[in-house]
Each structure stands twice: as structure tokens, then as C-alpha cells.
Amino acid sequence: MAVKVANYEFAGHVSRVVRFFSDLAIEVERRRARRMTRAILTGLTDAQLTDIGVNRLDVFRMR
């Protein structure tokens, strides 16, 4: 019985570690996408930004 409990606890820790790295990879990809989007929007003119319903301040506030 004690071995089954130890295996379950070990599996629980492993799954948390895997989930941590999975979440980390997802967050890194989201940040990369935000940086790319912000860079593209920064390159647009004010008229182009207005056409898509965004202004310079919106681009500046992007995180």
C-alpha cells in the first residue's frame, strides 16, 4: 500500500513539473506573438491604424 501511495505522489509531482514547463512554453509563445504584433502595428501609419480601429495609444499600452 505504501508503494502505491509513493508512486501516486511521485506521479503527481511529475505532472506538475510537466504542466509548469508546458505553461512556460505557452507563455513564451504568447509574449513572442505580442512583440511581433506590436512591432507590426508600430510600423503602420496613423491613418492605417484608424482604419482598423486602433490608435497610437492603444499600441503603446499593449503588453
UniProtKB/TrEMBL annotation:
Domain YjiS-like: 29-58
UniProt-recorded name of the protein: YjiS-like domain-containing protein
